[in-house]
Amino acid sequence: MKPGGGPPRLPGVGQSTQSLLDDYAKPLLSELRRIRAAEAIAARVEQAVRALENVLHARELCERLTLRADALAADAELVAEEQIRALFAALASDAGVQAAVFPEGLGASLAPRGQLQVSEIERLLAAVAKSPSTPLNAAAATARLAMAATTLLERCSAAARTQVALVDVSTAEQHQRRSFRTQCHEAYGAIIALLPNRRGKVARLFNRPEREGAGLGLPAAPPPTPRVGARLAPGKSKARKMDGRRAR
Amino acid sequence: MSWWESLVQIRRNDLEKGSGVFISETEVLTAAHVVTQDGAPLPLAKLTMDIRYQSLLAVPVAVAVLPSWITSGLTASDIALVRVEARSGLGLPTVFGVPAPSASAMLESVGFEAQNDTEQRLSGSVQCRVGPAGERLLYSKDFAPIGGMSGGPVYVGLASGIHVAGILIRESGSGLIGLSVTASVLAQLRSQL
Questions:
Q1: What is the DSSP letter of B114?
Q2: CB contact under 8 A, A68 and B123
Q3: How far apart are CA A52 and CA A183, in angstroms?
């Protein structure tokens, strides 16, 4: 195909948004800004680049907040487990009540995670309330457990909401990437119409940079290892190939 | 071009420091106590507004604070808008009423710590409570602003980009970490400029 004889070779869809911006979009934009009479085209591309950058930052933020929300939920879960243990210990003076509240033992009450942990705590609290007599020190433990359950519920809800937000923003990012590609194709057509005699140069401007591994963000492949079971030269052994160096 | 390039460190000639964020080419949102002394706006010459990630200084033109801040210094009105000479090429975040009243959201905040002048990011679940005069107060059990971060933005990532939910205010020990920025508060501040 002659240069400029077809659509430009845009970066692959597998390229990360950050790399798409750094390696392709921003250099392209700065080149477009240098073309006289193409200000309107450059402005449209700039708008697409900004939108892509905005949504990238929003997605990165959502990822950070999702991690943070998960960490906070995990912390709240640990606190809740501690309070379950405290309640179990507080009920130890009355084996009957303890068996009624923890019919399957402490381990069974500690096992659930997240929202299920909240449900288990609610069951424990209801069981304590139902029991005819509870040790005095169980009241404080129950109150602390109820507070821990409230916090855990809040944390789990926050974690769930951040996951939803992350999915929304990731979807928006994909949409913006498609919009950017569309904008590039449109800009390419418009610049070709503006500079019909410089199709080759315009094509080079819009084609993705030719780089090893570009588009995947992967490092260069390592050199191949020797074939397993390959014959060694006569008189040589694997041990001798170490040249006295020992693997550590 | 990135939104964080619109972060500002505000330094006063009495060596106090705060943070802020551009919300338009001519407006920096910050906390009122950062740009006032005893309720009254500081003389503009006493303020240095450093656009840290652009290595540029913004030139302040006017400071607007809410009347309730001047009269009573209420924490709930600790918000200010500084008009500066126009700065183009900033990636401006949108101001948005998040979280909704009585709701919670995971938010991040950023500001420049006074002691080391370094950027600090804090995040956690933030709850919006409505005050007696309708002001929206932001509470968090997960983080508290460090000295110098006052006025820095509290923000969230939505499908349309980064949105400023509010600003950080002075650490109070009560869990109050900031104020939500609503359209009415902004309109009130703009009318002062």
A1: T
A2: yes
A3: 12
Concatenate the DSSP letters of all residues of B32-86 into one string.
Answer: HHHHEETTEEPPGGGEEEEEGGGTEEE-EEEEEE-HHHHHH--GGG--EEEEES-
| Tokens found for residue B166 | 């509010």
Rg from Cα positions in chain B: 15
pTM higher than 0.90: no
Q: Is the peptide bond before B93 cis (omega within 30 degrees of 0)?
A: no
Residue in chain B closest to A55 (alpha carbons) equals B161
Please state, as a whole number, how many other Cβ atoms lie within 10 Å of the Cβ of residue A164. Answer: 11
Question: Is A158 within 8 Å of B104 when comparing Cβ atoms?
Answer: yes
The ipTM, to two decimals, is 0.85
Note the maximum CA span of chain B.
41
Q: What is the pLDDT of residues A35-93, one digit of tens each?
A: 888 889 999 999 999 899 999 999 999 999 999 999 999 999 999 999 999 999 999 98
Distance, in Å, from the CA atom of B38 to the CA atom of B40, rounded to the nearest integer, reads 6
Interface test with A, best of B3, B109, B158 (most A CBs within 10 A): B158
For chain A, the C-alpha Rg in angstroms (whole number) is 32
A152 and A69 in contact (C-beta within 8 Å)?
no
